[in-house]
Known about the structure:
mainly alpha; 80% helix; globular
Amino acid sequence: MIxxxxxxxxxxxxxxxxxxxxVEAFTIVLAVATVQGWRPALxxxxxxxxxxxxLVLALGPVIDRVPLQSLQLVIGxxxxxxxxxxxxxxxxxxxxxxxxxxEERAFASETASLSEAARLxxxxxxxxxxxxxxxAVVLEGVEVVFIVIAVGxxxxxxxxxxxxxxxxxxxxxxxxxxxxxxxxxxxxxTLKFGVGVMLSAFGVYWTGEGLGVAWPGHDLAIxxxxxxxxxxxxxxxxxxxxxxxxxxxxxxx
Length: 253
């Protein structure tokens, strides 16, 4: 039986990462439904989910055939690169160097793009709208599939990680369908910061496992690594902030 202390980090990482990705995909699907109706939106979403399902079925047997230590090393390096990319962007956004992701702006942009196709015939409009929903689901879903596999493969945690991802999908869909608007109040950069920390910690842990490192405390080392990445990330935010320019009139005062 899997211990909660072992499963909790995998579930949390998969849940938070999936929450971010599903919010972004839902924003585009909702824009499609608003402009063109739910039929092409749901058709594109269903097709995207079908592609993701085939991807999972194809990857499953391949992963089982890869030697465990090699799998740990490859996934560890990829997961570390993936996590550091998220963490870097979250730090830069928190420091004000790059703009925060705005779901309402993304919704407006996608709606405007789809509205430009209004002069086309109904069949072509439906195809364009369905394709937009399909692309959003596949692009964001591939990242979710990768994260679930990365944090769960080789340790018997695929189902707990998948459970975290499914819970995030269900939460976003329920809230989104109830409020019927972009989930702009979701603290997306905070979530990305946390996901970057967790994925980076998993990446270091898995890389060490692949290289034969004996971690003190075994899986509990992931929490220590996460705390280290969190402390480093938070300390880098004020260092990355650009100093405010002093206007000449202020210098004269």
